[in-house]
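Reproducibility note. Readers wishing to regenerate the assembly model reported in the main text can use the exact inputs given here. Chain order matters: entities are listed in the order in which they were concatenated for prediction.
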Amino acid sequence: MRALADLWAAYGVTLVFGAVNAVFALSAYAVLAVGVLSFATVVFAGIGGFLSAQLAGAFGWPFLAILPFAALAGALAAAAVAGAFLRLESHWMALASLALVLIGRVVALNAPALTGGVNGLIVPLRATPWELAGLLGLCALAFWRLDGSAYGLAARAVREDAAVASTMGVSPYRLRFAATLISGAVGGLGGAALAFTLQFLSPDTYFIGLAFTMIASTVLGGAFHWSGPIAGAFVFTALPAAMQAVVPQFEDVAKGLVLLAIMIYLPRGLIDPRRAALRRARAHG
Amino acid sequence: MLLFAAQLVNGLSLGSLYALFGIGFGLVFATLGVLNAAHGAYASAAALAAYFLIDRFGTPFAVAGLAGVAVGGVLAVVVDQIGFQPLRNRRSGMLAALITSIAFWIILDSLFGVATDQQSLAFPASSYPQAMLALGPLKVPTMQLVNFALLIAVATGVHLLIEATRLGAAMRAVGCNDVAAALGGVNARMIVLVKAFLAGATSGLAGVLAGIATSNVSASLGEGLLLKGFAAVVVGGFDDVRGTALAGLLLGVVEVFVAQYLSTSFRDGFTYLILLVFLVVRPRGLFGRDSVVRA
Amino acid sequence: MAGAVRGGFLLAFAVATGLGAAEAAPAPGEYSVGFITETTGPLAAAGVSFYRGAQLAVEEINQASYVGAGVTLKLAAKESGSDAARAVQALTQLGADRSVLAATCCILSPVAAALKPVTLNAKLPLVIHGATLPGLPNPPYVTSIVGLPGPQEVKMAQALAEAWKPKSVVYFVNADNEGFQNRFKAARKVMEAAGAKTADVISILSSDTDFTAGATQAIAVNPDLVMVWTTQTPAAGIIAALRAREYAGHISASDAISPAPVYKKIGAALAGTPFPILFSPEISKTPEAQAFVAGFAKKFGEAPDTYCAEGYTAIYFIAQGLKALDGAPTREALADALGKATSIEHNVYGGVPMNNGQAEVSNSIIAQWTRDGKVVRWEKP
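Running the prediction on these inputs yields the following structure tokens for the assembly.
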């Protein structure tokens, strides 16, 4: 029992960050599942995060009251982004979202009234691990339900082959728009979660590092099922700590090598429904 | 007036570096389809290699520079074969390529950090021409003219290579559809290697020149060039070297003028805004050809 | 009678020494001090310096039994790469390790601010060794051995204003580093009060690499003085660019250009550029400073820079706190001792007063590089 408590004291925070990253990864997955690569989640997270920080700081709202607004803000931003970029071809959409992230940092630096500018923003509220677990559970539940619904079916169709899907009556554009809205809402929630975990926001908080983390988590875990990003996020968050325990001098190199190994040997990620199905079929056949 | 001219020259020189990097980047952008995050590392590697040669062995700058360029090319080939070739064989798509490139970026950046003891280095002032040349009333650092001249030379060379030689035709064919090209008798494997080398070498040249211009030889050298170079590719049109060259120059000039006449805080933001506008309004860039993908 | 008095005296003496021998002393043993290292990432060069200073301090403290008889210290290092999330995880792990009595961290203010709630929660004393966000210290648990921006910059600005009487000044400053923003503001206030007009303020970002355009912009307004309040790589680039473009006016900078690798990079262009500094291996002449320089050279084969001194001071500060404890040391008692300290006894600065957990700058020097690579006191030429 004592050992368990000690383990939690040391590594519980890694689980907490893993949960926050899992929410981000789900947001990235929401659009990847319909065939769109986008880094815009970082911007949605930034909007959700700074808004949450201001609501907690200036008005003293509690965690549960702030969350819906973070999600709403993220979704509104996503609507704007979708309207502007969604008609672009996939490569350009990815690059446009990256440019948006870069611009986002410039805005964050130059708008001290909203973001604290270079001095950053102190966040007076802390989210407990249970609250974060609850948030992650809620998102996972939502994705599970979506997956099994008509939306999920349409999403898979559009991802496989958008042209064919449209002949079946599914509008790829409408579906991707909806996916972006979901990504925005979940991203906003993730931003709030990060704000209440770090308790200090700076212009670098919602930037390239976060974009990389969420995309890598999604790819690592597998972008073909909603449980993949969650698993990938926990693995990816634990990676630096694990690498530091094993090879402290070369931990960054080790991290890159692990990523590379996964890309070469398990390119569809850790959780791949197709691989599992094939294995089951082979076992029975 | 003199200030305008001086800043124009600064912008053109800076833009030459962006353009050179962009040319290298654009060569593989078409075949990979998305941002190769490790491309900046080729530039850093070239600069570091040149630095070590000068520092340890005292080689003359031109030789060290050429060696650095070659190192950039070789590194690009190595990364391509270890990282991207397996993906090409499996036709994995853009996401896998992106993550692989990020993995290499992390690895290479770390290795550079270890090699430089985490310090930022600089080419010794004695190793390259330092004097200011007088162009009428305007005084211009010699290296700025060198940068511009090299850009023109390399852009022309690469353009002619791609448009007017058999090798170039083969490269274009492989870029379009490597299976069809192979069926047509092209050694697609060889072409990919040549393209990778050329890409790494041009970006390596940009790296060596940037190392001089910024007095900073380190991993951050490549990162600084990466984003601006890829903006040059997008704004100029990735399938036309002339477009990339012009766009790079344009971006350099715009960046300098925004800082001088608008505000230094918005310098980078403006470049990214231009990038964004182009992506939304005219993704094929200023000079790119409209491509049609048949269903 | 005399014998009785003498006897009484002897008795009193014996009691006194006996009491002296039973004075407060920490229980013998090995205690861990956490160190959040930043030896990878954007600040790696400085991070390595901070850590080396700390390593030397631990070695010296153990050899001299500075904390007490039979007491040794050990560094428990965890890498953060200057990333707030990783630093939070690192500090939490240190907090969970009961053998860690205190920790020291942070070059960047956002990271320090993110660690503050973690350390208060874990009741682990945290000593900040690099970040300068005002309001960070929160005694007893959060203390800082770094002087806040202001005093050294004001002192140098006043000296320069008097010596050079500049009529117009151009400032270079990091838009994304609040420590340098505060230094710049302190200097500008002095300059403007002395009648030097602010001709331009050129913002740069820490990740910027090209400064020719900025240098051209600065030179165009013909300033008498260019003050460079930026982090190390940009500062080096800006000064090199200004001199390469044949700017003949005065330049001043910050201690970011003090480490030797900067001179190795830029060379003679740095000469004659004054900067305020608290510790320099060539100038600081107190016995502790000299011993520090000699010890560092012996252990690492090169001279220590100002960041090494800060890492060194942080560990000695913690050791000082431990020294004042009695019996088995606890985090609460250590925090109490650190929060109450009025000065740092063993330091290389010639005195460091502590006020409510915040170090105060008392002896800043104005230094400069010479053409041949030595750091000397700046004197008006």
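We highlight two features of this model. The two ends of chain A are 46 Å apart (CA to CA). Residues 35 and 189 of chain A are 22 Å apart (CA to CA).
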